[in-house]
Predict the structure.
Amino acid sequence: MSAPAAPLLRVDDLNVRFAARRGLFQRGGNADVKAVDGVSFDVMAGETFSVVGESGCGKTTTARAILGVQKPTSGAVLWRGRDIAGLDAAGRRAFRAGVQAVFQDPNASMNPRLRVADFIAEPLLLNVDLSAAERRDRARVALEQVGLRADDLRGFPHEFSGGQRQRIAIARAIASSPELIVLDEPVSSLDVSIRAQIMNLLKALRDERGYSYVFIAHHLGTVRYMSQMVGVMYLGRLMELAESEELFERPSHPYTRALFSAALPDHPDDTREEVLLKDDSVAAPRVEQGCRLRARCPFAMPVCGEIEPPWKEIAPRHFAACHLN
Ligand code: SF4
C-alpha cells in the first residue's frame, strides 16, 4: 500500500496576534487581538483550498502568513515539509518563485510607470536565474496564456481595463511557473460581467497546469465552483472544514449554516433550513473561554459559555467545532 501523499503546504496551529490599544478612558494595559487563532489545514498538489468568512475573520492575515509577509506569533507554515521561517537565502528564493499571489485590486500592486513586460518579469528577475531575453519570452508566453496579446507587453497599466489588469496580475503570478498561487479575493473589485471570465481563466489554468490555489473569498457560489476543500473561519478560528460538495450539501456548524442562509439559494426549490445569527453588534469579544459564536448563536447552551468546542471529525474529511456534534 502506498503512503498518503504529503501536502504541498501545511498551515500548522497558526497563531497571529496584534497588540490592540485600549481606549483613552479604559483601564488596564493593551490587549492582544487574536487575528488568527490555532488554524491548521493542508493543501495538496493540484487542489484548491478555499477560506471563507466575513471580513475581519482572519482569512487575509492567514494568506499573508502563507506568503511569508506576516510573521506568525506561534505555529508554522510548512512548504514541502519545511518551515518557511527557517529557510536560508536559496530556500527563500525558491519559495518566492514557487508561491505567488494575486490580490483583489490589481492597481495596488502595479507601478503606473512600469511597462507590462517589466511588471510581469519582475518576480523572475528577483527569484529565477534567466537572461533578459528569456524573461521577456516568459512574460510573453504568460500574457498569451491569460488571453492578452504579445503587443500588450509594451503597454502601461492605465491603457487596460480592470479585467485586463487582473489578467496581467495573473500572468505575473504564473510567469515563474509556481506550484501554489494565493488568490486573495481576486474578482471582488471587478464588474460582475468580468468575474466569471476571470474565474474560468483561473480554473482552466489550474486544470491545465496543475497549480494549487489557496482561495480567499466571501462569495459562496464562487467558492463552490472553484474548490476541492473549504474552511470556514469566524473571529480568527476555523469553525468547519470539509470537501466542497460535502460542505455545501451538508453544512453542520451553525455559523456555516447561517452564512449559507444569508446567501441566495442556488435553486428556488432549495428548502434548506434557515439559520439566522443575532446581530453582530452583540458578537462576543475575543473570548478566552467558550465558543466565540455564543452571543450570536441561536443554539447556544450553557456549556458553550464554559468550554471551547473541540475540533471533531464528524464525517470522513469533514470537521467542525461545535458542542452540538
Ligand atoms: Fe452555537 Fe454552542 Fe455550537 Fe458555538 S458551540 S456554535 S454557541 S451551539
In short: Residues 254, 291, 293-294, 297, 299-301, 304, 309, 322-324 surround iron/sulfur cluster (CB under 6 Å).
